[in-house]
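Inputs:
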Amino acid sequence: MRPDIIINLAAMTDVDGCEDDVELAEMVNVNGAECVARLCNEYGIRIIHFSTDYVFDGKKRIPYVEEDTPAPLSVYGRTKFLGEKKVLEIHPYPLIIRTQWIYGNGRENFITKILRVAEKEGRVDVVNDQFGSPTYAKDLAEPIRLLIDLKKTGIYHVVNSGICSWYDFAQEIFTRKNMCVDVVPISSTQLKRKAKRPAFSSLSTEKLKRDTGYILRSWKEALAEYLNQI
Ligand SMILES: NC(=O)c1ccc[n+]([C@@H]2O[C@H](COP(=O)([O-])OP(=O)(O)OC[C@H]3O[C@@H](n4cnc5c(N)ncnc54)[C@H](OP(=O)(O)O)[C@@H]3O)[C@@H](O)[C@H]2O)c1
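Outputs:
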């Protein structure tokens, strides 16, 4: 095969698992990204590499722009950031897409999980101190195709519009599904997870809008379409 473009989605994405196996996280998220970038460079293939809001520490109170300095809190965030750096160093015209809180068809995600728990228990505990933008995987396709067509390079943030907490997200899911569920707000510390998550990691899509004219629809609209399908 002689592809024109390689979209690299491969990663060790188990955020807490990365804390347990730092070496593997580095192998996959840093060295893996490096290998793909090297091969793409060698064969003149464009590379689209996926990254994450977890490169930021979440201390900012307005959405992060591409120029903000990453300060990851977790092994996952650090290795994804180092992966970005490798791709940018090695490849002369890479495109890095940072996104967050993805859900989509064909696999388990926050929505399918929370619906399952709610149906069984009638109650769910959801963190209300982490803010971001839930993003429908389907909605990434069009802006990424535009970025490719316009031969854009560098880092771009691509997420659905609007900001909410996981708690708000859960409330919206049950409202749309007409389900009566006891949604209990909890703090991140109550979950006792190994990896720290950024408290506020909303990503600004102003650069995408400026360079392509494209604006992603709101997370609520995208969620409504997704819920109609499942
Ligand atoms: N999901 C999100 O909310 C989110 C948010 C921001 C950024 N991202 C980024 O988006 C990308 C895709 O995420 P996702 O949620 O779709 O993750 P995912 O479901 O965990 O998919 C990751 C893929 O990477 C593959 N992979 C893992 N280790 C590999 C290795 N050593 N060699 C080859 N392939 C390997 C996995 O293959 P197997 O299935 O065979 O293990 C899997 O298909 C990642 O780069 C992630 O960092 C995701």
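Remarks. DSSP finds nine helices and ten strands in the chain. The pocket of NAP is lined by residues 9-13, 28, 32, 50, 52, 80, 99-102 (CB under 6 Å).
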